[in-house]
Amino acid sequence: MSKLHENASLPVELDGGEFLESESYSEERRPERQYCVFRAGRERFCLSVLEVEEVVDWPILTRIPLAPAFLMGVFNLRGTIVPLTDIAFTEGRRPGLLPKHVVVAALKGDSHHEDLRLGIAADEVIGTFSATEDALLDQAPNDVPHCRGMLRHEDRLALVVDLRRLMDVFPVPVI
User: Fold this and answer.
1) What CATH code would you report for 33-169?
2) Is pLDDT at 54 greater than 80 in this prediction?
């Protein structure tokens, strides 16, 4: 094969050495994480996509008598009973205006707790976003104890939900 045909797939400006340099540059990029951003009430929240199992349309709920106000009920997700919490319940929802989606999150257990699935009521699922650590702010509002920081995306901020803290603030009985 001639020299002309060997490098035919490479742009004329690049020879093999320059191509290898550009590959090593991409390895130096900062690692990115993906987040699922959703709106609950007037606030935007986000979870790492590694914590989100799926997003489902509003299910048929079974209400639990004498349950705390934040526990909207439970629903059946392919044979598993999932508790549904409303993290925006303090704002008050208009009667008859239910959220449209449920973000199903998985909280991995440790030596003291079992694995738990938890549904979070979402009025709107905005999408998934990739972000570097630079886009994360360590501060969270003091009046939102279930969040560990904020994510900058699309010139807006979303509160980063910490599932462990969420379970402490909104304790859902294991079902």
Assistant:
1) 2.40.50.180
2) yes
